[in-house]
Specification:
With 80 residues, this protein is mainly α. It contains five helices and no strands.
Length: 80
């Protein structure tokens, strides 16, 4: 029997982190689009919500993850 270990893919780690931080499905939707580099207006359009609602979701995600900016959020989620 042999056991091999490989580093986890960033996408796999990100999914575990999202669950560990307790993000809601909608917060995960917003976060996925932030990671993709979309601005708030584009996120709002894609999700059929207002820009203010996007900002509210981001504030909640920032609080849950302990970050204060989009760049820090992306770095935290992607393990950069």
């Amino acid at each position: 029997m042999a056991v091999t270990m490989n580093p986890a893919l960033a996408t796999d780690v990100a999914e575990v982190l999202l669950l560990a931080y307790g993000l809601t499905p909608r917060e995960r939707d917003v976060l996925a689009r932030v990671v993709a580099g979309l601005p708030s207006r584009a996120i709002a359009t894609e999700l059929h919500i207002t820009v203010a609602t996007v900002q509210d979701h981001l504030k909640s995600v920032f609080a849950k993850t302990g970050v204060r900016s989009r760049s820090a959020l992306v770095a935290t989620i992607l393990g950069l």
